Amino acid sequence: MTKMNIPEKTRGKLLAHFDALIADGAGILKTAEDIPPEYDYSEFNHRQYEKRASYKKLNWPHYVEWRTKAATLVAHLVPKESIHNASVEGLAQLTPTAEHMEWAISFLKAVKSDLESGFFDSLGSQIEAEIASDYMGQAEQLLGEGQTGKFDHVPAAVLAGAVLEKALRKLCGQQQPPIAISTTSGESKTLNPLIDDLKKVGLFNELKAKQLRSWADIRNKAAHGEFDQFNRGDVEQMIQGVSNFLADYLK
Fold first, then answer.
1. Do both 100 and 200 map to the same domain?
2. Radius of gyration of the CA atoms of the chain, in A
3. Last residue of a domain, one of 95, 116, 137
């Protein structure tokens, strides 16, 4: 399966966000208050000694806001398996010292460089997978909040079917060459043709295709008012099955 590149518009927004944070961080450093060293006098040897070294005092509220924004950005962008992950986790724990601020700015520059070089081009797929997972959670919630015996399972079936269709279209676009998601007459392909096309290129076998067709059948019946042709148990199995399919294929 091929990776989907981050759309250029999204990449541009992310890079602009990095630039703004880097500039803001530099501003916090520039406006830091210089605190002189603190001295004391030793009665033992009658000499003055440095009790505390000089340091730069950062604006605490501004620093906390900046650190939170920076940690949020990199946590959403950097994959768990990245070599940067340990630094990502540590970013939110940094103390307001000039040294830590300089390190954080350098870290943001490094992550930005990786983004510019295309090292995070699987981000788009990760985002879509998370969105699809959220929708499946909503479908499960719809099923749980309904009233048994009143076709409460229908809305959940419609939503799960819509998520499945979107996932199949995305998978078609990830193939090399991409599989057309429209017919020669310009109409959008329905679920079953999408399933057949993906099976033909070997993305999954006939057993998996048969499962997908059964869920497509439930979705079609739900969409066409044939509510007595499937039951709550069918939809429960559909939601679980589609969720597993997304986890296995939409990465």
1. no
2. 27
3. 116
The answer to whether residues 75 and 148 belong to one domain is: no
CATH number assigned to the domain comprising residue 213: 1.20.120.330
State the pLDDT at residue 127. Answer: 47
* Contact between 245 and 224 (Cβ < 8 Å): no
Global pTM? Answer: 0.49
CA dist., res. 233 & res. 240, Å (int)? 11
SS3 137: helix
Residue 227: give the domain boundaries. 123-249
Instruction: Specify the DSSP element, H or E, that contains 35.
Output: strand 33-35
* CA 249 – CA 224 distance, rounded (Å): 28
Residue type, 159: L
List pLDDT tens digits, range 34-63: 988 888 777 777 787 677 788 899 999 999
Instruction: Please give the DSSP secondary-structure letter assigned to residue 39.
Output: E
**3-state SS, residue 114:** helix
227 and 172, same domain (yes or no)? yes
Do residue 147 and residue 100 come from a single domain?
Answer: no
Asked if 29 and 102 touch (Cβ cutoff 8 Å), the reply is yes
Percent of the chain scoring above 70 in pLDDT: 81
Q: Give residue 3's pLDDT.
A: 40
* Total domains, the chain: 2
**How many residues does this entry show for the chain?**
251
